[in-house]
Description:
Number of helices of chain A: 7
Oligomer: homodimer
CATH class of the largest domain in chain A: Mainly Beta
Mean pLDDT of chain A: 93
Strand content of chain A: 15-25%
Helix content of chain A: 25-40%
Largest sheet of chain A: 4 strands, antiparallel
Low-confidence stretches of chain A: none
CATH topology of the largest domain in chain A: Jelly Rolls
Strand order of the largest sheet of chain A: 1-8-3-6
Distance between the termini of chain A: 45 Å
Number of strands of chain A: 11
Amino acid sequence: MESIFHKVDCLHCRLSELCLSNGLNKEEIQQLTSIVKSKRPIKSDEFLYRQNDQCESFYVVRSGSFRSFISNTDGSEQTISFYLSGELMGLDSLQNGRFYCSVVAMETSTVCELPLAKLNEIYLQIPAVQAQMTRIIGREIASDHDKIVLLGNRSATEKMATFLLMLSQRYYSLGYSGTRFNLSMRRYDIANFLGLTIETVSRQLSSLSKQGIITVDQRGIQIDNMDLLKTIVEPCLPKRVSSINK
Amino acid sequence: MESIFHKVDCLHCRLSELCLSNGLNKEEIQQLTSIVKSKRPIKSDEFLYRQNDQCESFYVVRSGSFRSFISNTDGSEQTISFYLSGELMGLDSLQNGRFYCSVVAMETSTVCELPLAKLNEIYLQIPAVQAQMTRIIGREIASDHDKIVLLGNRSATEKMATFLLMLSQRYYSLGYSGTRFNLSMRRYDIANFLGLTIETVSRQLSSLSKQGIITVDQRGIQIDNMDLLKTIVEPCLPKRVSSINK
DNA sequence: CGCTCCCTTGAATGAGTTCAAGGCGCGTGG
DNA sequence: CCACGCGCCTTGAACTCATTCAAGGGAGCG
């Protein structure tokens, strides 16, 4: 019955270190696996869930990518996050049990579903899951704060450069190239995420391209001069104990 | 020894409904009280903690107000939140145990200190504390997302109006007047919070004042036409099931 | 082939910033 | 008690960066 689409197996999942199962032993991971539900793939522009929906489950991106956004009374929207593989969606429902954002797929994507009821049981059985969830929540809060800094403080150039560097680092830590990747989002999504217009995004990409920092071909991005890119971004970064550069 | 400044007593604290003790019975509240430490009052511009400090405790505002902000490599800073009575500070350390923001007092203020070690013990003894903490975390995430919408999408007028309305509602729910209050923050703090300059903040306040919506006298704000203020803010609000207006 | 969607580029416009000057309140010291 | 200085805030004028408006290119698809 369950899982006609994919066999869920956290133990052999290449994302296990990023995901909830991080820090668990074999046995515990198998226990976790047992509560994870599989869903049919979600097509581009299809909703995973909608703002104000009752939250019954959290979701982890297994493949593909998603965009979360808040719709306002006047019909405008604000993109809050892009989600790549291994990232957990739905935390903003913790307040009152309803999703605070809508989430749509940006390409055909798959997710692992974590039913809340079962998740709460697991917390009691495996404290390490709770601990990992806490870290994930902390990561979410910290990244929201980074986003606030980006939106509040920065020029279009800095926003664009930060966006590219952020993506580069996320792809890299997923095991992909950090210097060559395809954007799964449209210009509109980027603009909306960064608090800019699509024209400005387009111009910024052209400008970075003219400076020889990147090569742009449609959705394809190649970073040709990572050092220069980091030079643009650096002033924007929070002072931290451990440097972000690697 | 402990608590030479204030007797901590969650049971008779007027903030108990907003705070961690919400939803607990008498006995449980007394148990919670036992782990809460008191600290000497913190003076204006004094740090409660600094970005990158190891987090040993969370803090709840008992009286006064605080500002949290992130310092960047280039020396700039971005205000993340203002904290009023009953609000919990320190959640952004959940990721890795270090504070992601600095927090300073905006006036002489007092806090209740919640040592993490003891808090984690209480979770096991009183599940309702854990549940309430989860709601508080959810509230934090949701309010961060609101802030992202505000910074990403909105004109200076809308930002200013939203800021005032937000404060009004928070003061009201603390039992103070929602139409007449003193700002504890300087213009600089407001500007930095909203991603504007102090001149723009000043002009926006003047403009709202000229329209008869508010009266401004230094830090003192009086809202003279709440309906008009809400009219400015409304388009910016997320579509929600339950309206924010009351 | 022709349509649509997405993206780029140019030119004009404008919201907010920057620069500059001045006012007000308050504490300190003469 | 007043003078002075300092921090904080307001206001005006010039400027600038991003937006808006407008046009057109190119990929993908029926």
